[in-house]
Structures are given as C-alpha cells and as structure tokens.
Amino acid sequence: VIGKGVYGIDLMLKDQLHGAILRSQYAHAKIVSIDTSEAKKIPGVHAVVTAEDAPNVRYGRSYMDRYILARGKVRFMGDPVAAVAADTLAIAKAALKKIKVTYEPLPVVIDQEEAMKLDAPTLHDDMPLPKNIPEGVKVKNVCGFAQVHVGDPEKAMAEADVVVDEVYETKMIHPQYLEPRMAAAQMEPNGRLTVWANAQAPFPVRQEVAKMLGLALNNVRVIAADIGGGFGGKGSGITSGAAVEPICGLLAMKTKRAVMIVLDKAEETISTTIRSGARMYIKTGVKKDGTIVARTGKVIYDTGGYSGFGVQAGGRCTTMLGGWYLMPNCHIDGYTVYTNKQVCGPVRGPGGPQAAFAVESHMDSIAAKLGMDPVEFRLKNTPKAGDKIVGVPKLRDVSLGETIRTAAEKIGWGKVKLEKNQGIGIATGSWIESAGPGGGAIVKVNEDGSVTVHIGKIDMGTAPRFGIPVIVAEELGVPVEDVTVLSVDTDASPWDAGTVGSRAILVSGTASQRAAIDARTQLFKMAARQLEASPDDLEIVDKQIRVKGTPSKTVALSTVATNAHNVIGEVIGRGYCDNLELMAEEKAHGSSQPFTAHACIVEVDTMTGNVKILKYVAVHDIGQPIHLAAVEGQIEGATAMSIGQALCEQVVFDKDGRTLNPSFVDYLMPTLN
C-alpha cells in the first residue's frame, strides 16, 4: 500500500543485461527457418537464442506439449520463438526486428466446438486423445475429458414435470494484475543458476527451470520477489504457459551475465495465461413443487494453443456444472479443447466461475418456468449435513441455506421497492477442494525469544505474512510482533506447492502451527531441567516458561533459547501439512464446503446499456478467519473481478487469432471513481 515492497523490477544486478522475446505473429503456422545472423551483428547484443539453443525438452501440466521456445510450429499469436539479451532494452528490441522467421501459415481455429470437428485443422499432431473418451465418440483437438455420472438421469428426466434446456457461454478474461510478469537470472561462479521471479509458486518454477535447462535441482535457486497481484495468473507460470523464467535462465547461461526480462502490458495480455472460455449445455428436470430430480450437460472448455491448466480446470468445471444443490441424478461430459488462442491457466477458482454462471443463471430460468420465487426455489433444494452433492459424497456443516437467507435479508428481497429499469438478483456458489501437494514450515527461536518463520508460500493478499505470526505467537506465548515470516528462497525455505488453490493459510498455517509446537516441545525439555518439572506440566505465557498452576516457578523464554544454543543447538521446529491428509479427514468426517451467496440491485439505462450497481451484498461462510481484514479484502477483490467479467471484461480475438484489446485502453475493467 505504501509502495515499499521490493518487486522484481526493483532489482539491479551487477552487469545486468536486458532480455526481450520475439513472439509469433501467426496463430498457427509451421516454422520453416529462423535467421538470427543480422540480429547478432548489432553492437550491444550479447546473445540471440532459439529452440535450437535449448535442450529438446517439452513441458506441460498434464500434456507435455510445449517447448521453451517454439520448435517447428507456433500455435497462437504470442508464442515465443526467439529471445535476445542486450546492453539496453532498446537494443534488444531492435535486434528482435532483425530476426528473420519464415513461416508457412496454417488454418486457424478459434471456436472450441469447431476445433472438435474431424475436419478442423490439427493443432498437435503427436498428442493422442485422452484414453477415457467414451468409445464411439469421434472428436479432434481434445486434450482432456471428464465425466460425472450419478444415479439414472435419463429415467428421472423422463419422469420430471418440467424440463429446462439451455446453453451458456463465458469468454476468456485476463487476470489483469498491475505488475507484469518478470524474471531475472544469473549464473554464479560455481555454475549455479539463480532466478528471481514474481511467481506464486517458486518451487515448481525451480523444478521446471532445472528440467528445461538440463540442470540438477541443487544447481537452481529461485528467490521470490514481492508480487503486484496474481489471482492465479502467476500461480503456475511455466506449466501453464508463461515461461519467462526458463527463457531468462537460458539467456543468462549463454551470456554468463545477469539478464532481466520484464513483459510490457500488451505483451503480458497476449502471451500469459488467462481464464478459459467455456460453452456449457445444461438441462434440468424438476417436479412441480420445485424439487430438482435430474441434470444432464456438456462442457466444451477452451484451453488455447497448449494444454496449460485446462485439463484440471475443465474437469473442475464439469463437476461443478452439477451444482451444489441436491442433485440425485446427474450426467455431464466435459471436453477440454485446443484452439489457436493463447494458453489458459488458473485464474481465481479455475473452472468454477464458468460453471457458477451457468448453474445460477439456469436456476433463475427454472424458477421462472415454475413460477417460483428464485430464493425459495434455491432453499427448496439446499442440502443439509449428511447429504451429498455432485463431486462430494458427504457434507458436514452445511451453510448454503444460511448464506442465501442472509443475503436475501440484507438486500431486502421481497421488501425493497424497485424503480423503473431496476432489477434485483441473487446467486450462490461453492468450491470443491481437491487433493494436492501441501507445504512445510520451519520455526526458529532466536536467542532473545523472538521467532523467525520460513515457509514456501509468498504473500499476495492471502495473508501468510500477517496471519501466520498470529498462529505461531499463540503457540509460543510471544507477542505477534515478535514473529517474522521471511520471503521465499528455495535454498532456505521448506518445499511448498505454491500460493494457489485457496490453500495459503490452510496449508502454511497448519504447517507453521505444527512447527511451533515442535519448537515449543524442545524448549520445554530444556526448561524442565531448570524448573525441576515435567515438560508436560509447562506452558509459555508472555515470553515466560512456567509450571502450570505455579506462576512463581518461571524462566524467561530468552534464557532457555540462549542456553539451547550451547546445549542442543538453535531451537528449530519443523512442520508439514499434507493436503492428502486433509482430504482423508474430509472423506472420513464429511466435507465442510465453503458456501456463498451474493445479491445485488442494479439499474439499467435502456438507451445506452449502461449498468449501475446500486447495492451489493456478499455473504461468505469462511470458517475461522485468521486475519479478518485480509479475508474481507479477498471478498471485495473477487467481487470486483466478478463484476468485471459479468459486465465488460473479455479478451477479444479476431478470426485470425489476434488479440484486439491488449492494453488497458481497450480492455475494459471496473475502476474506482
């Protein structure tokens, strides 16, 4: 807020060169040849690299379908083809213009459903169709397939009193963080590569940089800079498509100099990962009293030129199209499809917003068809503890009904008097968590009793820098201000999957709590000797270790911590949180789904189409807040982003795959008045 964060672009490395990337001007074409000779002659140019200068290694999340620099073919406008390192950015950009690439243009396919047809151009010749596609289904350019099947939807649909059949579509949007992606890299004298990155997942970046550049993990170090916004778009930059870090590393290896690459705004918009567009077919059968009996549907999920995060997000969208209401019978097929658009990746609940838009709009349509109040219709089909919903076999602590009723009350549902051209609406949502890697924490107790915490998650609004000190301070009996959380350095921080998937406090908070308890156990063993008591009888209060029930028998935490250095070494607690462990607990006891309900009143200018939001209410069941201000900020930010996609945000492509609105001038977003 005060502008004191050290962001990636603030780095100034010794003898630093400036990197720039040449990107394809075709959405689909064969690369016939690349001539870099003229670019290399320009004074001040230190390296020009193409795919031939990099290891012949492919990368990807589910499909290994992409190279560090395009090799043989480009598949979207913005695909990286070559890169330059030079004394200045101006020289680097001048060198890009001298690189001569000969292309053989190929047919372009922009629409994901058209791409599935057998007569569509083939985007990836050597990528097989998913093995789980049903026998007899003839499709093309599909990289992911998911299926949800519950009960007997065909039979239930035939017995329904009312059937509503609709199609919904969402377009691609860019997360539009203010700070573009960057990377800096430097070869150390010992042959190690150090990378600075504004990435949400430093350890996955390290793993992919090492893999793509042919280095061992111990020879790659990633240091996290502060992040000026991410929203998922910087969460899995390499495996999702924005491979700035390995390109920068390749240039540093070639030049033996430090190199920095910073994307400009237009380049950021056309080349980094964005939220997928989806076309969703949804049909629901209900009884006259409003009871939902069946749903069938199909998701066609656009992942762009490479698979990126599309397979995972498309599968999530498929599951969530079943909704979070009681749904005894359901069958939905989901296809993730290649097109000649930029790569799609995680953006704030990948796959969820698309499905939520379709599900909730569809619920309103059904209510209208039945002549029921939309709130009452939703409440009619709300699950309770012990019920199951699509994708979740057992629920506990179900708050969906409570969030609906609270939102309706706060917005004045059924009571507010609407003026001409005004409308009122309500929608709900949920999020189905999935199993995935966890993360660790290290808690070090310093000689004076203050505490340093190492975690592998960066802070980007999810509050590890502020929430975790609260957790650790409580366990160690010290003031919150005595606890410091350090920035991520893969050489010193414990491994972590990254700040993704709404897991920051859940994973790192749990790991930090366990690490603090481990450190406390060590301290109690040391203090027990001095206090002549059992470690189990000790507690820490106000930086004093004391015998429970006997406040007079105390020893200062700082004294024990100092003595520990001379006896057992520095007190270091370790902790780890395994997402599989959390998911197993959910499976055993039932899932505590997060539910939300939003309601708003709008006014529409029927002459211009301008929409004015008069009142907005967001109700979220978030469980136990560790840092309330951060939670409120997350809700407000997500609400603003959702309003943007609902009213004005969209990455616009022409028929040739060119992005028509790459700058903030043309990409419309909600702004502060």
List key phrases describing it.
single chain; 673 residues; alpha+beta; 7-stranded mixed beta sheet; 5-stranded mixed beta sheet; 17 helices; 29% helix
Structural write-up:
Helix 5 packs across helix 7 (244-255), helix 9 (310-320) packs parallel to helix 10 and helix 13 (464-476) runs parallel beside helix 14 (504-531). The protein has 673 residues and is of the alpha+beta class. The protein contains 17 helices and 27 strands. It is globular and about 75 Å long. It starts with 16 loop residues before the first strand and ends in a 26-residue tail after the last helix.
Overall pLDDT, averaged? Answer: 94
Runs with pLDDT <50, length 5+?
Answer: none
* Distance between the ends: 18 Å
What percentage of residues falls in helices of 4 or more residues?
Answer: 25-40%
Please tally the helical runs, counting DSSP H or I stretches of 4 or more residues. Answer: 17
Shape: globular
Structural class: alpha+beta
Count the strands? 27
Computed Rg: 27 Å
Major sheet summary line: 7 strands, mixed
Going across the biggest sheet, name each strand in turn.
Answer: 3-7-1-14-11-12-13
Q: What percentage of amino acids are in beta strands?
A: 25-35%
